[in-house]
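Exercise (ungraded).
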Amino acid sequence: MTKLKRLFTIILRLLALGATTSAIIIMVTSHDSTEVLNLKFTVKYSNSPTFKYFVIVEAIASGYTLMVLFISPKSVFSPLVVVLDIVTTLLLTSGISAALAIAEVGKKGNSHAGWFPICDQVPKFCDRVSVSLILGFAAPIVYFVLNLYSLHPVFNPLFAVKP
Amino acid sequence: MTKLKRLFTIILRLLALGATTSAIIIMVTSHDSTEVLNLKFTVKYSNSPTFKYFVIVEAIASGYTLMVLFISPKSVFSPLVVVLDIVTTLLLTSGISAALAIAEVGKKGNSHAGWFPICDQVPKFCDRVSVSLILGFAAPIVYFVLNLYSLHPVFNPLFAVKP
């Protein structure tokens, strides 16, 4: 039973690792160019500080997830992992929320602020960013399941920790 | 000792409630107007879907925090509160991250995308939004401390839950 639990946790972590590393690769390799008045403009993720933040957060989460795969559940660090898992979920949530907010402006613009949508000009860039954001959205969900799983002794009344 | 713990939790919840409700009030009452070519434009939070999302998230967190204040720690719902506290922390983190991403564009613009900063035109609006965002930033921090506090039996080895 304990082996099965360990296997389930490892599968979840590998899923999260797959999502975050794919999100980074797709985001970093996204670029497209457009011509305005015979001048060529190239669009890439690093043009937006928010997309840079997204990539940094996904990289931290990837590194952490990879590291934790090698920590035994019997290790002294095991209780710390529960807390670091929550911190990672928060970081991933922050990164995807910020990136989605900017992507929404890129897609629809904001007429009140005079910000025009850019996706009509650079559709290839927008498509790739969308895929990266879908993967970046999956990662905190997987991590949230991991949180629930490691915390089930707390909220399962049968295992309830008495204060 | 248990009474002291309960008092500490209540103080944290009241702090979070103060931060979220103030953030809502300040954000909702933020507006400013500017004239462009003799046409008057009014700027308000609801012009941005992201700021609307921020207000909705703060409202959900306020309602939840108020409700939980009346739940006894001995109630059967008490273990559920631990999980809902984490969900609330995630929601608050998502709301503030998205709002900060948009505020950054409002403040500095993005020359690559052709989005001009708007804070020079509507400084009063930007100042109030900044105060709202500072409060909105404090709320998930308070909630994270609450999470750590309710989870300390899990990561404190003396109280460690054996799997």
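Further reading is listed at the end of the chapter. For now, observe: The longest strand of chain A covers residues 31-36. Chain A touches chain B through 51 residues (CB under 8 Å).
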